[in-house]
## 1
Amino acid sequence: MLFLPLLTLALLSVAFAEPRVSPLVTHEKRSHTPAGWSRSRRHDSAAVLPLRIGLVQSNMDKLEELLLDVSGPESANYGKHWSAGKVAQTFAPSRETVDTVREWLGDSGIEPSRIKLSGARTWIELNATIEEAERLLNTEYHVYSHFTGKEHVACDSYQLPEHVSKHVDLVLPSIHFDAVIKRDNNPSGHTLRNIGQPGVGLKPKTTGTVSSILNQLEACDQQITLICLRALYGIVYEPVATSKNSYGIVEYTPQAYLQTDLNMFFGNFTPNLVGSSPKMVSIDGGYAQTEYTGFDYNGESDLDLQYAMSLVDPQPITLYQTGDMVEGASFNNFLDAIDGSYCTFEGGDDPNYDSIYPDPYGGGYEGPEDCGTATPAYVISTSYGYNEADLSPAYAARQCAEYAKLGLMGTTVLYSSGDDGVAGNGDLCLNSDGSQTANGTMFNPSFPGTCPYVTSVGATQVNPGASVAEPESACMQVIYSGGGFSNYFAMPSYQAAAVEHYLTAYPPPYTASQYNATGKSRGFPDVAANGANYVVAIDGEFELVFGTSASSPVTGSILTLVNDARLAAGKSPIGFINPTIYSPAFTGAFHDITTGSNPGCGTIGFNATAGWDPVTGLGTPDFPQLVARWLALP
Ligand SMILES: *[C@@H]1O[C@H](CO)[C@@H](O)[C@H](O)[C@H]1NC(C)=O
Ligand SMILES: *[C@@H]1O[C@H](CO)[C@@H](O)[C@H](O)[C@H]1NC(C)=O
Ligand SMILES: *[C@@H]1O[C@H](CO)[C@@H](O)[C@H](O)[C@H]1NC(C)=O
Ligand SMILES: *[C@@H]1O[C@H](CO)[C@@H](O)[C@H](O)[C@H]1NC(C)=O
């Protein structure tokens, strides 16, 4: 008799273990082989692949709603930001997700003992033979060769049963392309991870050395210095809550500042800061290298730090110096460091795009990857970027969700919107197959600027011959303000009225084969600030610098001063600002920019117009207005 219940249970569990069957659906598909690679052969079917299945997180459908709940100016929970623990708990993949994927693998003949769940429950891993992987994913794996000789395993597309597909973000390796090319072998600059490497991604531009520094309000059309920015945006404020406040600037090695350059700038413009340095937070072996110098190595960091440190003085600045000299780093490496729940090789990174630490190839940083070791500052400005098309939609979406989580925790995340107008970094445009070339005809939006959970910052200029009292235009000297409409992200509710107004009042004379004309996609940038003619000390000389690279840290400085005022009044930091700045309560808190455009891809781009536009967003900051309105919020 003792055996009977057990037997019954065993029979029952057999009955329930009938494999679930649902039709196969294509989960991810790549349209073209990335430049530099060619398919060389079918992979050996007995070889073993480390297969990693990224699980869909819970409550992602409520992400925007949850973020609006703490960021919407009319919400009862405005400013009640979440703890990191609450964020991790809310979005961890559900039991049902984990079980569905496990059952599917079990039903497909994979022994449970071969399946491993990562610590943060976000990945399921197993070592599968090529034959098993091809059967699981209904695909074919090929070996691809790079012109440098490097080989990579990939497929063109793969399928999952429908009931499994909805629980999976992505499977690796699959269509995602290997960027693990040592940069020394890769003069073409196609490495995606080394976002700080000269020639990769977004960089400020210079027209050369300044012969004499004008530093006059009358000359802001020729040279931007601190007095110009203070006059343009009404920045008159002495920080008082510096011990409570924080402002972080992110740099990617080998980009680095030189202390001698900071001192040279401060000596001329902010004498009390001579000898001051940012608070260095080293991430994954990052340090302010001095081995390589020149505009291409020091321009970005010198610009960001000289202006940010001066504008928020005496507020100390945190410098998140990310990545070593060998492997470099990606945005995910930075995000891992400031949010432990996003972190680890197993918890969100894609070895095809992100650097792996300790350096598996030797010669680089040998320490453990930084995971939750750095505290996120209240405002974080980054002047680096990719083109959306450099990344797969799934990869971009996963990273974008992380920016929403930082918003839930009270951090304002700013990214420069790009310097090539409607074209992408490097002045590349899209072709219909998704490839990017100089002669492409489709606009090429930048990332993370198109992520609806970051604040994207475009560039303006003081018009030639004009004074600081006159309205600025979209920047049309040396660089053009990045802007347009995402191909990956839907329009968030907070900007719907503003963007619909633009599309209705000024219908762009372009077709759906030039830009995402659905009227339902995320428009960027959100705001703008001056990006032309900055006087920056670089390698012992004053140079004239252009770019949204300047606009982002200047906007970050202004928002940091707003945080100071709120913190001094016992209020929370402003956190994710987009729902607030697009709300009626903030109408008129930005200087609307209505002239200029953002040319690219053989067109004049979009026009700056009255109201929001995909060139300068809502406009440039009016600091006294912003402080007053943010102090009026709870
Ligand atoms: C896969 O194999 C590698 C090398 O043998 C091993 O280190 C790793 O733990 C294995 N992974 C799983 C999920 O079994
Ligand atoms: C566009 O440029 C690519 C190389 O970047 C070239 O292969 C292609 O032929 C060009 N197409 C046209 C229409 O000129
Ligand atoms: C346009 O944007 C929408 C919303 O993000 C997206 O679903 C659609 O695929 C995009 N269209 C193109 C052509 O990229
Ligand atoms: C920009 O404005 C000019 C002049 O009003 C107009 O001819 C052009 O069609 C507009 N372009 C766009 C993209 O809206």
## 2
Amino acid sequence: MTGHDAAAGEGGRPRAAAPSAGEGTRAVRAGLPEPHKYEPTLPGPVFAAHYHLPGDPTGPYTYGRDENPTWTHLERAIGELESPGDPAQTVVFASGMAAISAVALSQLRAGDAVVFPDDGYQALPLLHEQLTAYGVEVRTAPTGGDAQRKVLAGAKLLWIETPSNPGLDVCDIRALVREAHSGGALVAVDNTLATPLGQRPLALGADFSVASDTKGMTGHGDVLLGHVSTGDPALATAVRRWRKVVGAIPGPMEAWLAHRSLATLQLRHDRQCATALTLAHALRERPEVSGVRYPGLPDDPSHAVASRQMRRYGSVVSFTLPDREQAERFLDGLRLVDDATSFGGVRSTAERRGRWGGDAVPEGFVRFSVGAEDPEDLVADVLRSLDALGFTGNGAAD
Ligand SMILES: *Cc1c(COP(=O)(O)O)cnc(C)c1O
């Protein structure tokens, strides 16, 4: 029996954990095929541009741009995590942006209107421009205060990003879905920051849960990947067709690495979320730090809504240092934290977000991605680097 046949579902049902199982149990078993003697638990990556295919070209595996057994295993795994008990159809992509674009470009036509957040991921404005060039009307509003609600009338698609990156604002998914659906709009949620262990958009009523799996889902900073999950088979077919049209397919090695990483998702994410809260509390105590945002802080502006729809509050903390120079010195002084973009990885990273120029953030704004280091070590490193700024408490450094 090869991984190919196992993925095709021949020889029995896949061995997913029961829907009632705990999240760690589901994560380690997600997407595993039926066991076959002498086969590995998780079959290795299948490298194939084409498959043996005598006679009529019927699937599941015909040509490598259409399907791959390694994707099938990963898609089942993500589907089980996105929607336990009633696995969502999932389509994996070469990156998060490929997944986002697949939803937007497979659903929107010239003359349609779409609502984007104005504080979302920094490549969304590029998609905005592209859609506008194709004759789609793009409206924007902030994530906070459910402001997108006010510009929904007549829209075909509502795009939500909650918590937003990098500002960590949160909107009420259930309320926005209700409003959007009553006007006939589909709803897609960018769930990158939360991961399916932190938030399940499909259960909250969304039509699509979309993510960059480059971040916390894979968590090691070595893979770019994205996915779209949906409970609607027709929408899944449209997204899958779009993948074929543009060919934005993941490599088998990346897909396999991602599946391997999902086994530790709960371990990683629990540790990272717990340390993020500890770090947010510690930052709150510091005179040179302002604007600490973390949806898990009980008095964060996002906390009330977040606690109604999130199961974990994520691994990202944001805050502001007095100016650009102090933010750069702080980042430079860290020993356990790499000055790098992206987030959700086991190794902490942080960056001065303003360096990219795309986000409406202060010059001293830092987006901090909490990794899996020992919390005491990480917090000590941060406090030491803050101490080294020599802040005097009157708004100026020595
Ligand atoms: C990183 C990110 C993306 C884009 O994902 P890529 O894998 O880099 O293409 C989209 N949305 C959010 C919220 C992100 O953080």
